[in-house]
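hey so u asked for the seq, here:
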Amino acid sequence: MQGGTSFRMRAGQLFCACDSDGLPLAVGREPDRASISVMAVAFALSVLAQILTVSVLPLVSAPLAPNPQAVMWPYIALLTGGALSTFPASILLDLFGRRAAFALGASLGLAGGMMSYWAVVHGQYVGLVIGVAWLGMAQGFGLFYRHAGAMASQGGAGLVFAAGMAAALLAPVLMGVMDRLAGPIAPAATLVVAGLVYLLTLGVAIRLPARKIGHDEADGLPDRPAYVVMLGATALAGLAWSIMTGVMAHAPLIMAGCGIGFSASAVAMALHMMAMYAPGLLIGRWVASWGGLLVSLSGLLLLLVGVVLLTMQTAFLGLSLALVVAGAGWGIATIGASAWLHQGAQPTTTQLALHDMFLFLAAIAGAASLGF
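ran it, structure tokens below
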């Protein structure tokens, strides 16, 4: 320690994936600009794995479910895994840094993809539930990329979210390839690809720049969001997640029931997911002009319009358009709420964990009500 203000390297200390000197991260330290692009790539890969998973999960669950009501339980397990991972992700970020935390989340995704594939091929319903729960845990870790981007800079969250839109373009291509190569087991093979995408995420995550550990006593404590902002942003985002997961839970089954094939369904879901993250390209200007609260409310209204349109469609074009409208509404509502939460303040990792856990709980409620 030099001058009583900073932590320094000591003889014999080991540095591996951890970027925190083995000590809690200094108060007020934020990710530097150099790591934004890496976090954006990692988030994009995480979104790609999410698209692949949710696009095929209802299709692989239906043949294995012991009864019609059980079709939704693997999807609920996916969301439950995400909810359970929020606090471990937050704690690991504090104790060991971004690289170790995100790498652990990615490894869970790889294991989940392999477990899910084995379960589908061997007709093991319980194994599928366990495997997708692991995939959900990886998704929960991946959510922290958007928070890290928001803390790095005012436009960081928008850039990280916009990277998710680019990932959506690859999903139908990959699913088309799997359809040609794997044939009848293409949905199950797609879950393996989702796990391998998480493996790529692991490779990106360990490249995150190390964060210097130091604390200037004169810096003081950072501003924290007011309780009304914390509760309001969480409630708005939670409502958006609740509605959206209900839509995503049964949209693939609706398209299958309307005679829409696997590849076409993948295209519709990819367009939907692309629309979910596209607002990240413009959200910074909207928030600067109207504020995060008004942006989030307008997104909720657009999401409801998309849901109404979805109930009135039976053709591929109409269903795709409704999914795009609903996805854009979700993106505006969620990113607006996130911008409101981070605007002029820096939430603690505990607050972020509570925020994300509530989003997953709201998503579970939406899937359980609208999905069934």
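Residues 175 and 190 are 7 Å apart (CA to CA). The domain at 33-210+225-371 is CATH 1.20.1250.20 (Growth Hormone; Chain: A;).
lmk if thats what u needed
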